[in-house]
Amino acid sequence: MTHPSGNPALDTVDGLVRLGPRNRWYALCRSDLVRRGQLTRLRRLGEDLLLWRDSAGTVHVQEDRCPHRGARLSQGVHMGDRVACNYHGVQVDADGVVVSVPGSPGCALEGKRRLRTFPATEHADAVFAWFGDPEDAGPVPFVPPLEIADVEWEHFLAYVEWDAPWLYSLDNLMDPMHGAFLHRKSHTMSGGRREAVFQIRETDTGFVFEKTDQVGVNFDWSEWIDTGMYWVRLEIPYPATAGPGGPFRIVCTATPINETQHAAFFWRCRRVQGWERDAWRFLYKTRLEARHWAVLEQDRQMEEAMPLDAWDRENLYQHDLALVRLRRIMRSEATRQLAARQERAGAGRREVRA
């Protein structure tokens, strides 16, 4: 039943919740972090990863572990279409196949697929990978939200790494009410009431958590989306002085680094085309971007200051319905995945005995 990474935390429900349920796509980093001819090491979802580009520029994501002795491949040599371990020269290709063992040509290791390799893709300036369980479980199609998929929308990516559990960011994103307090001095969230009643509205891919008595004034709703990857979408009304494009939408996701750190991705989006696209890009870079980073800084300070046992001493109320639902979703998925892993292990033992 042990997880392929060897991390014992991933063999428990709590560990899977804290480090991210498997059989999902996750965003790893900005695309420009993975440069041609270089090897990039990342830790995501409690696993050590190697990211690199082949000679055609295609990004690859693999376990950062040489199949020979477990040395870090990220300390090795980029060879165009393969990576060579710097310890004994063992060469592994983009499919995880050992293509050469220079110290012992023709040995049994050659030609074997021995390196865990993750299906990967790039979209909207970010690198994404599929974390399957079992590790050879094929990915579902990668389906991003409309705002970063449709050519009618323009977007900018803000990427951060924070010293807080990834679930704190998901809680924050699914909590529209904090906008009226924490961000009350923001240029877009200063209006509206500071009390509200919320409801949950079902969708085909998740649910919307929205105020029942205020629309289009402040941060009034959040949408939880599951398309084989966890996304959050929200909308911030914009004044006419912010340029063309109507309301400002943010598409977000978060990825655990480990149990106490995470990476978060915020695509700031507006539906603009032609000259309006150029006008909004100019306004964003010259006037709006710095203000958005200031809002993120408020979120960072709040999340990083929260104790790691914050959930254990909460007293939730009506505004927190979305948080309760989200946590149930995560725990249910982690429980289901561990049960499936246990069933596979039992079937394997029965097959051996037969």
TrEMBL record:
Short name of any one Pfam family annotated for the protein: Rieske
UniProt name for this protein: Aromatic ring-hydroxylating dioxygenase subunit alpha
Gene Ontology molecular functions: dioxygenase activity
rRNA-binding in keyword set: no
Gene3D superfamilies reported in the protein's UniProt record: Naphthalene 1,2-dioxygenase Alpha Subunit, Chain A, domain 1, Rieske [2Fe-2S] iron-sulphur domain
Alphabetized UniProt keyword annotations: 2Fe-2S, Dioxygenase, Iron, Iron-sulfur, Metal-binding, Oxidoreductase
InterPro entries per UniProt: Cholesterol_7-desaturase (IPR050584), Rieske_2Fe-2S (IPR017941), Rieske_2Fe-2S_sf (IPR036922), VanA_C_cat (IPR044043)
Ranges of residues in domain Rieske: 25-129
